[in-house]
Amino acid sequence: MYPYLRLVKEVFKARRAPPLGILDTHESTHICWPWDIDPWMELNNGRTLTLFDLGRLPLGIRAGLHTALRQNGWGLAVAGNSTRYRRRVTTFQKVTMRSRCVGWDARFIYMDQTMWRNGECTTQMLVRVAITSKEGIVAPARVVEAMGHDPQSPPLPGWVQAWVEADHQRPWPPKF
C-alpha cells in the first residue's frame, strides 16, 4: 500500500518550510517500518523507490514546481531511474534522505536522491521526470521558467550524461 499518511506528513512539513531554489537540496528523515521490509528483513527495493517519492514531492513543493503544475494544468511522470543499493536498511532504522535537481535537457528534469544512515550512503537514485500536458511532454525550460527560475540548465554532470546516452542505446520497445 502506498504510504499516504507519510506523504501527507511530508507535504504538511514542506508547505511550512522555507522555499528552495531549483538546484537546492531538500532533506528529510524517515524510519524503516515493519511494513517496508522484504523477506530478508531489510528495506524492500521497490519500497525504496516509493519512499523516494517522499523526498521528490516536498522538493517540488518547496521549489515551486507544484504551483507551476497546478497553474498550467500539467502533470508529472517518472520517465526512468537508475538505483544503487549499497548498505542494508533494517526495521526501525532511521535514514536521512537528500533530494535535489541536478539539471534538465530538452525533455526531462534529472534528480539525484540519496538515503544516509550513520554518515554512510545506503542508496542513491538518479531519476528523470517528464512534465506532461494534453499536447505531450512540456519542455523543462518552460517549466522552470514558470517556476520563476532561470530556464537555462546548468551542465548535467558527466555521470548523468553517460546514463542518458546509455539509455538511448536500449531498444524500445524491447525485442522479446
Give the topology, please:
Blueprint: H1 4-16, E1 25-31, H2 45-63, H3 65-72, E2 75-85, E3 94-104, E4 109-117, E5 120-133, E6 136-138, H4 140-146, H5 158-168
Antiparallel strand pairs: 1-3, 2-5, 3-4, 4-5, 5-6
In short:
By secondary structure, this protein is of the alpha+beta class. The protein has helices at residues 4-16, 45-63, 65-72, 140-146, 158-168; strands at residues 25-31, 75-85, 94-104, 109-117, 120-133, 136-138.
How would you describe this structure to a colleague?
With 176 residues, the protein is of the alpha+beta class. The protein has a single domain, classed as Thiol Ester Dehydrase, Chain A (Roll). It is 33% helix and 31% strand. The chain contains five helices and six strands. It has helices at residues 4-16, 45-63, 65-72, 140-146, 158-168, and strands at residues 25-31, 75-85, 94-104, 109-117, 120-133, 136-138. Strands 1, 2, 3, 4, 5 and 6 form a six-stranded antiparallel sheet that branches. Strand 4 and strand 5 form a beta hairpin. Helix 1 (4-16) runs parallel beside helix 2 (45-63). The longest helix has 19 residues, at 45-63. The two termini are 31 Å apart. The model has no long low-confidence stretch (mean pLDDT 97).
